[in-house]
Specification:
mainly alpha; 8 helices; 3% strand
Length: 252
């Protein structure tokens, strides 16, 4: 947490560097997981593609993200074809998925940060996810009885979802009223939106691991799995948070 906000305060480009490193580690983790599932992908090619997307997003904002995605993904697919024609559909669709999942969705974290009030935007993103995840875990441990998605993530419960929702709604109302001077119920709605996006992100990452028959993406963070196990909620929440804040700034 200190590293995130310290880099933003010191120099925003340091935050870019931090996110770039995290995305690169995420690519290494997820390509390693795919490899265990029998899908061989060249790490360095995906890292180059993701780096192009992230640099273009940082320097060109939404236009940079859109144009670089439109150019990079076809080039990525052609590069994979040149490397090997074997299992091309499986390999290319996997590579495009990873690039979109990490670099395109992750690009919205950069869009939030690369703004005059980027520190407030990133704080809102981190705080809302923390409210949801922390209180969902507490409620799930204390009173969780009804499974939310037992075939995907057996530990998640409806009680945990409700606990996280209550905390995120209260946190969203307070954060957006304080930092962005919006009416409290707008912040509450964004908090509720965070519950949906963060939960979906977590479930999709769990589905990937289940499909590949692995427990964690890696053991980089003892007791917590890998970077992807910490990043999944943010990847799905960042685009929604960016859209919500842009909507508030332009029309409300």
């Amino acid at each position: 947490m200190g590293l995130i906000f310290g880099s933003l305060k010191a120099a925003p480009v340091l935050f870019f560097g931090l996110i770039w490193v995290v995305i690169m580690i995420g690519i290494k983790e997820i390509t390693g997981a795919y490899r265990k599932g029998g899908i061989e992908l060249p790490d360095y090619v995906l890292m180059i593609a993701a780096s192009v997307l992230l640099v273009a997003t940082w320097n060109g904002n939404t236009e940079g993200l859109a144009v670089s995605a439109g150019l990079t993904i076809p080039i990525l697919m052609f590069t994979l074809l040149i490397i090997s024609q074997k299992d091309f559909i499986k390999r290319s669709t996997s590579a495009v998925f990873i690039t979109f999942y990490l670099a395109v969705l992750g690009g919205f974290i950069l869009l939030l940060a690369n703004h005059p009030d980027g520190d407030a935007r990133i704080f809102a993103l981190v705080a809302l996810i923390a409210c949801n995840d922390t209180f969902a875990y507490i409620a799930g441990v204390l009173i969780g009885k009804h499974k939310l998605a037992p075939s995907i993530s057996p530990k998640k419960s409806w009680e945990g979802l409700i606990g996280g929702a209550i905390a995120a709604v209260i946190g969203g109302a307070f954060i957006f009223n304080s930092l962005f001077e919006t009416v409290w119920y707008m912040g509450a709605a964004i908090g509720l939106m965070t519950v949906v996006t963060a939960t979906c992100g977590d479930l999709i990452e769990s589905a990937i691991k289940r499909d590949l028959a692995i427990k964690d993406m890696s053991n980089l963070l003892p007791g917590h799995g890998g970077i992807m196990d910490r990043l999944d909620s943010a990847l799905f929440t960042a685009p929604a948070a960016w859209f919500a804040i842009e909507l508030i700034n332009r029309y409300l």
